[in-house]
Each structure stands twice: as C-alpha cells, then as structure tokens.
Amino acid sequence: MNQLIDALSDPENKMEKFLGSTLGSMVPMSSAMRGYVNTGPYLREARSLLDRMLKDIPGYSQGLPPRRDIYGEPVARRIGVSTTMKEDPVEAEVNRIMLETSEGISMPQPTHNGVDLREITLKSGQNAYDRYQELAAKPEDKGPSLKESLEKLISTEDYQAMPDGETSQLGSRLNAIQGIIQKYRAVAFKRLQMENPEIGAAMLQHKYKAAAKYLDNKGQTSAGDQLRKSLGLPSSQ
Fold it and tell me: In whole angstroms, what is the distance from residue 67 CA to residue 87 CA?
C-alpha cells in the first residue's frame, strides 16, 4: 500500500516501476527463480514495464543492459554480507563529500536535444544509453579511464588544499570532480554520435519538428507543413 501511494504521488516517474514490480511478482515461481536468474558478474537494468515484469525469468535478464554507476562502469553483483573487494578511493571520496555537503554526482543525462537514448537500440544491438555510459567511463581506447583520472586528481596536493564546497562553487573539490566527469561525458557523446549517425539524425528531426510547431504557433502553418513534408511527416491538418 505504501508503494502504491508513493507511485500515485508521482505517477509519471514511479507508476511504471510500481506496476512492473507488482506484475512481476505475479509470475509463477518468480521468488524461487530470482536467485538463479542473473548468474553473470553484473547487476542488470530493468527500465521498461516489460523488463520489470520479466527480469526474474531465466534467460531474459541476460538480454538487459548492465546497471552502471555514475562513472559509467557496470555494477558488480555482491553476494553475502561481507566482501574482500579493495576500497575504491574515488568512491570513498565522493561518498565522503556527499555526507559532508549533501551534494553528489548525478547519472549521465539520458535525453539529448529531445531524443531519449534509452529508447534507441543501436545496430550493434546495444542500447544507446548503455553505450553512452560505457563510453563515458573510457571514451578513448588508449587514454585513461574516468576513474583513473579522478583518482589522479584527488591524490594531488592542489586537490587536498581545496574546500569541499558545492558543485557550482569554483575551486571546490566537488566542482573539480564534476569538471572532469563532464569533459569525459562530452567526449563520450561525440563519439557515440560518430559511431551511430542515426542519433544525430534523430536529434535533427526533433529540432525540425519543433521549428515546424513554432511556425504553426506564429500562424505560418503552410511553412510548417512544408518543413514537415521535407521530413516525411504528416501535415498539421
């Protein structure tokens, strides 16, 4: 009931997740299968209603993209309450800043110029948003990864002399971290577009559709229809 009330409070962002989880729990033997579905090393990302319904069905979860962290790296599955994994200095520093300032790093933006990368499947079969996150972790094959660049940053004397501050505060630690992350994401998105020209075409089409709508609102419907015709779209009539 609490989950339903929470979903009703923000249906646009939470209702689909609630319905997917609820319907998925109705799948016969779903509880028994849950521990045997994803035997891979990474957690999987269920985004659509169908994904959330079927993520506990053996064989289906392997087709879902891996869940990635803010650095673009896949999140490893951890079984049990203890771990022998070495502490990550970058994650430790970002977590410390979050506790001190209540600010942190957000996930990469999935929507660019009106195009939702989560809704695009590339010719390779990979989800466009997953590929974008993957590239954000390491956009250059021979260059350092994002984590490596951040680890180098936080080990410098200049960084240690910076105040924690807010993300928007120039000269703060969080601002320096965010600056490197944004540079990596910008390079990653450019490479994503170079690899997949259809993404650029989709963004251009969205731009032209918005321009056609603007002409409609200005009373220039014929000009708007002419623009839509050039895109192979139906007229406003």
Answer: 20
